[in-house]
Amino acid sequence: MRANNKQEQLKADYQAVLKTTAGKRLIGRFLNLSHLYVTTWAPDPQAAAFNEGERSLGLTIVNELNKYVPGGFIEILKIMEEKNGRCN
After folding, report:
1. Domain that holds residue 43
2. What is the chain's Cα-based Rg?
3. What's the helix, strand, coil split of the chain in %, to 5?
4. What is the number of structural domains in the chain?
5. C-beta of residue 88 within 8 angstroms of C-beta of residue 38
6. Could you tell me where the beta strands, DSSP code E, fall in the chain?
7. Is 0.70 topped by the overall pTM?
8. 3-class DSSP state of 12
9. For residue range 25-61, what is the model confidence (pLDDT) as tens digits?
10. Are 61 and 34 in contact, with CB atoms under 8 Å apart?
């Protein structure tokens, strides 16, 4: 598959997931688990590296959301806030 086709497929995938409230909640859960809104510091360097790896994945999701579904990240934040009273 060509790079352009992969990007088009990824865009379509994100759009399909964000068409449902369940999809938005699921992405929101992944973002909560990725330590986006809390420190990743840990006294153990291996634990800190692990936390940073999770955070890196969360940042990738946010960047792709912003690229492929403008406004999608904001929709997810609203659902997260409604569910938890906060975004973390």
Report:
1. 3-84
2. 14
3. 75, 0, 25
4. 1
5. yes
6. none
7. yes
8. helix
9. 999 999 999 989 899 999 999 999 999 999 999 999 9
10. yes
